[in-house]
Design brief:
The chain is mainly β. The chain contains no helices and seven strands. The protein has one domain. The strands form two sheets. Strands 6-5-2-1-7 form a five-stranded antiparallel beta sheet, with no helix packed on it. A two-stranded antiparallel ribbon has the order 3-4.
Length: about 70
């Protein structure tokens, strides 16, 4: 065991993450476990390294984040 708690989120969870503009709030849309694209951004997710698709409360835009980048609120 590495000592790092496994972070897992469910669709509908309220979360925060840091951006260049500061902390942003949003909602988890889904857990992504395969490669995909959001607009022109490539999301390199896999079953062993999932990412979460989140929707910003402010802009409504979607983005992908690694579990360690998100904090449940």
């Amino acid at each position: 065991m590495t000592g790092h708690p496994s972070r897992s989120f469910e669709p509908g969870d309220s979360v925060t993450w840091n951006t260049s503009q500061g902390e942003t709030r949003g909602t988890v849309a889904k857990k992504q476990t395969s490669h995909t694209h959001i607009k022109s951004h490539k999301v390199k997710a896999s079953v062993s390294h999932p990412q979460y698709i989140v929707e910003s409360d402010k802009s409504g835009k979607q983005a992908a984040h690694r579990p360690k980048e998100l904090k449940k609120i």
